[in-house]
Automatic annotation (TrEMBL):
This is SGNH hydrolase-type esterase domain-containing protein. It comes from the Bacteria. GO terms for molecular function: phosphatidylcholine lysophospholipase activity. Residues 55-203 form the SGNH hydrolase-type esterase domain. SUPFAM superfamilies: SGNH hydrolase. It comes from Croceitalea dokdonensis DOKDO 023.
Length: 213
């Protein structure tokens, strides 16, 4: 019955959707994670856009756990929804950390639309994996996208409110720790002003660590 339910849901997700521009990257990610994954161990999975993709030392940060990274650069929330089965569901993770919404705002999507798609991601995970805990990581501030800070803050408030109503959904705030006063810190980014350096990831680690006992 569960297999039929999955086929129905996955068909609903992909129905009428054109070929994803991330198809090759996703296939490469799946091949890599398949080679690392031990199905007999509990899995903690990180997914989302490039801020997750470039977090190269996740396994080293949490050596007592089996960590998989399925971040794919440039993705938006609807891309994760499309690729949810190969990137997340197949590994039956105990906990999933999701970072999406950053690129959605840059693509001029409204927070309400992003939340609606995020809710579909959450619902599909919990329909097939009802015991999986989801941690939604807040959108981060950045030098490159600081002009949209109000939209990001609005999106974060909405995701935080969503998490307050769902006992299987938590919200990890990385926004405030990346600020210096009312401005974004400049020493935690690489040259593009968007992606983080090691200092930035250290801040993220401090915020994420309490969610992985």
């Amino acid at each position: 019955m569960k297999n039929y339910l999955f086929l129905f849901l996955f068909g609903f997700i992909t129905c009428g959707t054109a070929q994803s521009p991330f198809q090759e990257e996703v296939e490469a990610l799946v091949a890599k994670n398949d080679s690392l994954w031990d199905a007999n161990r509990e899995t903690i999975l990180f997914t989302g856009s490039s801020s997750i993709r470039f977090w190269k030392d996740l396994q080293q940060r949490f050596p007592q756990h089996q960590i998989l990274n399925s971040g794919f650069g440039g993705s938006q929330t609807h891309d994760l929804l499309y690729h949810l089965e190969p990137l997340v569901l197949k590994y039956r993770p105990k906990k999933v950390f999701i970072y999406e919404g950053d690129n959605d705002i840059a693509a001029m999507k409204r927070p309400k639309e992003i939340i609606a798609t995020g809710q579909k991601v959450i619902t599909n995970i919990h329909t097939l994996l009802p015991d999986t805990q989801i941690v939604w990581i807040s959108a981060k501030p950045s030098i490159a996208r600081w002009k949209w800070k109000r939209r990001y803050k609005r999106l974060n408030r909405k995701f935080q409110k969503l998490a307050s109503k769902n006992p299987k959904l938590q919200f990890a705030d990385v926004w405030n720790v990346m600020l210096e006063g009312r401005r974004v810190r400049r020493d935690i980014f690489i040259e593009d002003g968007l992606h983080m350096n090691s200092k930035g990831y250290q801040l993220w680690y401090q915020q994420i660590k309490p969610f992985i006992p």
